[in-house]
Input
Amino acid sequence: MTMIDTDTKHKLREMGVGALVDSFEQQDGALTIGMPFEERLKIAVDDAHASYTGQKITGLIRRAGLRYPDAELRRLDLIEERGIDRGVIANLATCAFITRCENVVFQGFTGSGKTYLGSALAKAACQHRFRALYIRMPDLEEAWLAAFDKLGGKEMFLRKYAAYHLLVIDEWLLDEPGDALRGMLLELLERRYDAVSTVFCTQYTKKDWHQRLCGDVRADAIMDRIVHRTIWVETGDANIREQATRQ
Output
């Protein structure tokens, strides 16, 4: 039986700490009998904090818009067969690269698992309580074009997408970007450079990027804000999606 009276419980819930009240009420009286109040409080706070953290992580994952919400870095198929370094994946899973403001590139053929890896890495970031977002390049372009119709929309767009601790851009350079999109990418990556981390999922190797970005001075500037602080992961040429449908 809890030692907190009804009026105090109501006040605590009113202040937004209902989880703490619930933790007190769920304590087993037989186990806590004779236990000092400070110890019961510590147990209740630990339980309430665990509940709060779990809810926060669930919210971060939901808002990240993952293509594969159930993706997990520890559940990758055919790692060795695909030539992926298990140690690199294990290090990425710690999300230390986000603290170091480094980027990641997943590069490989169609169906080689780039999107799954991007989703799994974003989910790991959420589990470490970083704000993450997964978005396809065509959807990013659409959001940018929609921003033109709003007063101050372009600045709001840049502030929004520059603020994520981890931004996963899928289908990177699948279509060659026009001048307007390249201008946005340069400004966005400039704001994110050395401040937060970006993941690029792409079919194209680094040597092809410059030409895909139109091969001019702006292409130089965009690549300069990506390639120097980036972990490159080749996902191979095995079509994981095709193999999964055969099973």
